[in-house]
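Incident review: delayed structure delivery

Summary: a single-chain prediction request sat in the queue longer than the usual turnaround. Root cause was a stuck worker, restarted by the on-call engineer. No data loss occurred. The affected request and its eventual output are reproduced below so the record is complete for anyone auditing the incident later.

Affected input:
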Amino acid sequence: MFFTSFWQMRVLILLFAKLCVPLYIFFMLDMIRHSILYICMLLSAATSLAQDFTTSADTLVADTTYTLPWPQSMQARLDSIIGEAKMLETSQMGFLVYDLDDDSVLYARDQRQVIRPASTMKLITAITALDQLGTDYEYSTRVCYTGKVMPSATFEQDSTQLLMGDIYIIGGMDPKISEEDISTFAKSIRSLGVDTICGNIYADRSMKDSDQYGEGWCWDDDNAILSPLVYKRKDNMIDVLLTALSKEKVFLDGNKGEKKCPQGAKVAYELRRPLEDVLQPMMKLSNNLYAESMYYQIGLTQGRPATAKKAQTVEEAIMKKAGAGDAIHRFADGSGLSLYNYLSAEIEVAFLRYAFKREAVFDALYRSLPIAAVDGTIKDRMAGTPAAGNVHAKTGTLSGVSSLAGYLTAPNGHRLAFSIMNQGVMRGIYAKNLQDKLCAAMCR
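Output delivered after worker restart:
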């Protein structure tokens, strides 16, 4: 027998137990450690797989945007841009895109939302003027006189020629009259052989009403005077003419005043200026005075004196012909300065569509619009994007308001009309950046 006694066997068993228990604990701990490592590896692999799946999904969505057929790809891009625009959480936007070649709406978001248009109001004025006045319309300012030119009877040898009558400057609200033009007025009087006016010089402002400012204009803005005889934004043409006459050695033996020119007065000179000469800076540079002068030319078609109300009557008629007669709106002035103007993207696009269907109107309008990254008020916008050189659009800016409306050509060659109107924007740059992104998305 191996164990000589019971006690020896008991000692051996105790020794064996003392050796095995630590070994058992060691093996158990090692198994637990490996299990934890294995679980961590599984979790890491699962996380990596989830990330790969998410990345793949995101990539799939992005790729889908570009692989979708047109116009769905464009619509998806517009949705994405608008969805990421945090400024829209606290402001309004009206947006409409219209395919002029397919005659269909491509994209619409709150297109009937009534918003202040700011200077995109000039689109309405320009389209109405081109349609109603015609592209060959001309502004007119006339120098007229009454009475006769006769020699002085003071001395037999005196060569002085007297105008025994009055001079009338009939204003046509030409906003581009220059110092050189007024000098020409003075020369035309001198060319009659006159060196003394035995009468008065009158300003004839009967072309329009006596309102010097537009309805709803801010009192603290530095606005031009709305006078038929406006010169450098002020109603001071007669004073400038008197200075020009003195340079021509023409003496006024009378006074200056205001009076309507009588029928039968003779015309000494007439300055005519093409409508497009006013239209170009009005649209490219967003000149407010030029827009108001054009507005009163429109009103003049309804009879003298021209008024803003008469101009609005003409605009209302165009709006009905454009198919937007029932849209909620308010017209107040021609430039967009008024806080009483209210339009929608739907109305602006309706006017753009109306112009597009009339070749002469569209050609003149299109030439006058600022071009992205090229000229005008969007010269410094959209550079380096597909919109550069493509977007032809009018801007609009007032405190809290930013708008952009016009035309562009899509990648498939279709011509689009669009209007983007933002209101309640505390920082205009945010709205402009959003508009630029939307335009770039429409161009690719």
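Verification: The longest strand covers residues 266-274.
Action items: add queue-age alerting; document worker restart procedure.
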